[in-house]
Design brief:
- The chain is mainly alpha-helical.
- It contains 3 helices and 2 strands, in the order αααββ.
- A hairpin with a 2-residue loop joins β1 (91-93) and β2.
């Protein structure tokens, strides 16, 4: 859950803060502009954080703007996987069925 939250919220939250601030500022709220400025600061900081991630993953910089999209896809895939695991449905990959093994019943 923590990995999902970090992967999804990290790259997307600054943009949501920025959009919320712009919407509130356009509606005449003073705090909206402060929120927008904070969102812009967060968005400006992203390239510095991404630099290390892009180097680690060997991804060209021109694809950095896709990180929020990738995070969303990762979050959805991780959630679907967790649901399938916890409901016992498992998955099929290359004609092989993978399911959670049944819990052992007591006794040692």
């Amino acid at each position: 859950a923590a990995a999902w939250l970090a992967a999804l919220v990290g790259p997307i939250a600054p943009w949501l803060v920025l959009l919320e601030g712009l919407a509130r500022g356009a509606a005449g709220e003073r705090m909206g502009w402060a929120l927008a400025i904070g969102g812009m600061a967060l968005c400006a900081w992203i390239p510095y954080i991404l630099r290390d991630i892009l180097i680690l993953l060997r991804v060209p910089r021109r694809y950095a703007w896709l990180l929020p999209v990738a995070a969303l896809i990762y979050g959805c895939a991780a959630t679907a996987s967790a649901v399938r695991h916890h409901t016992g449905r498992g998955l099929t990959w290359k004609n092989r069925r993978y399911v959670r093994p049944p819990a052992s019943s007591g006794g040692a």
